């Protein structure tokens, strides 16, 4: 391939930059800090063009539009600022955290998750301020709950330690269950050991849904201080909690978890956590657990358990697993199970010797 001359490449880059600046100039009406256009639709279009320009020179006009125009235009200006995504654009978005419109504040929270990854730290700081400004002022009155939900979701995307304290507080005491749930999930993604005590508290005090996510987060963090709660959760009355506990125990303890996981699997009477327990054991090198997964794939009454067993076998199965996978693919009536069994079978067809595949398929036909 013949590369173009440096001068030609530089000229091409210059022309592209000039075209974007020209678009910004047109959207601004080539002067001032006001959006071009008279109608709402025209101003929405102008704001969108400014966002596409990616230029900080468009920020003053977009900020002005977000503060003074009709709500539909304000929202498009906010979206455009997020698309520009620079620290300058984030500063402008932060100034909109006190906007009278709840919908605009939601848009600000969402836009702060759309910025350039290099600007995530600044976005996290702006999100925390926006979230703190949306806290309920009194019991029974929470007019900005949707803003707080958007903030928590966006913090999950930017994943910065600057959001840790806000997330810890929301995970423990936010009156909205969805916010607590999103905060707990994000704490697991941050992998920060400072969240362990709060997650243990959530396991002890919250509802089963958030207990399950707290246990998963403790596994993702991997701090041994979470082990007592995770071990206890292995015997929890809720099947989802038990499944999460099995996986987290594997993550924290490694090979040391094998005896507890074997004991839990032996007495487990629900197929869904049983599959997770077998998967965890198989990842730790227990060959019998692969056989357990094959049996779940073929015999579980719950179609989701069968599908999950097929997905697990794609990761931990052996060439001999082709017997169960082929049978499930051809005989199971559930589409999801067929899909997972087929995906796993294709993997082994690619990596296993033909003689072993033929032997496994011969067993499947018997």
**CATH domain class of the domain at 23-131 and 148-158:** Mainly Alpha
Low-confidence segments, given as residue ranges, are 18-22, 26-31
Approximately how much beta-strand content do the residues carry? under 5%
Q: From the 3D structure, determine the CATH topology of the domain at 23-131 and 148-158.
A: Leucine-rich Repeat Variant
Q: Layout of SSEs?
A:
Blueprint: H1 6-28, H2 40-53, H3 59-68, H4 71-84, H5 87-94, H6 102-111, H7 120-133, H8 145-158, H9 164-173, H10 177-190, H11 196-205, H12 208-221, H13 227-233, H14 239-253, H15 258-267, H16 271-283, H17 287-299, H18 303-316, H19 322-331, H20 335-351, H21 354-364
Give a quick rundown of the structure.
The protein has 366 residues and is an all-alpha fold.
Structural features, described:
The protein has 366 residues and is mainly α. The chain has a domain at 23-131 and 148-158: Leucine-rich Repeat Variant (Alpha Horseshoe), CATH 1.25.10.10. The protein contains 21 helices and no strands. Helix 8 packs parallel to helix 10.
Output the keywords.
21 helices; mainly alpha; Leucine-rich Repeat Variant; 366 residues; elongated
């Amino acid at each position: 391939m013949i590369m173009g001359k440096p001068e030609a490449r530089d000229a091409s880059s210059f022309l592209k930059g000039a075209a974007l600046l020209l678009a910004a100039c047109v959207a601004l009406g080539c002067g001032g800090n006001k959006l071009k256009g008279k109608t709402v639709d025209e101003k929405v279009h102008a704001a969108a063009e400014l966002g596409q320009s990616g230029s900080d020179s468009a920020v003053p006009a977009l900020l002005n539009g977000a503060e003074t125009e009709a709500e539909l235009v304000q929202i498009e200006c906010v979206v455009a600022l997020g698309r520009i995504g620079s620290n300058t654009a984030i500063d402008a978005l932060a100034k909109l955290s006190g906007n009278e419109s709840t919908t605009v504040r939601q848009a600000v929270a969402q836009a702060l998750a759309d910025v350039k990854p290099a600007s995530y730290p600044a976005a996290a700081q702006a999100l925390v301020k926006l979230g703190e400004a949306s806290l309920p002022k009194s019991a029974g009155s929470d007019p900005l709950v949707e803003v707080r939900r958007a903030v928590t979701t966006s913090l999950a995307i930017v994943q910065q330690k600057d959001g840790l304290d806000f997330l810890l507080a929301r995970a423990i005491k936010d009156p909205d269950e969805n916010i607590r749930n999103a905060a707990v999930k994000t704490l697991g993604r941050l992998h920060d050991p400072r969240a362990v005590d709060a997650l243990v508290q959530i396991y002890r005090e919250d509802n089963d849904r958030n207990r399950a996510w707290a246990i998963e987060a403790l596994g993702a963090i991997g701090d041994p201080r979470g082990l007592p709660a995770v071990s206890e959760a292995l015997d929890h009355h809720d099947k989802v909690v038990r499944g999460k506990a099995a996986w987290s125990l594997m993550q924290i303890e490694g090979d040391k978890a094998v005896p507890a996981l074997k004991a839990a699997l032996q007495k487990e009477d629900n197929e869904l956590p049983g599959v997770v327990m077998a998967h965890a054991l198989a990842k730790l090198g227990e060959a019998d657990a692969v056989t357990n997964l094959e049996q779940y794939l073929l015999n579980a009454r719950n179609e989701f358990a069968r599908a999950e067993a097929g997905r697990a076998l794609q990761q931990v199965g052996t060439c001999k697993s082709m017997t169960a996978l082929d049978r499930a693919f051809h005989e199971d009536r559930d589409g999801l199970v067929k899909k997972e069994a087929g995906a796993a079978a294709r993997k082994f067809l690619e990596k296993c010797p033909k003689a072993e595949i033929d032997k496994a398929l011969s067993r499947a036909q018997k």
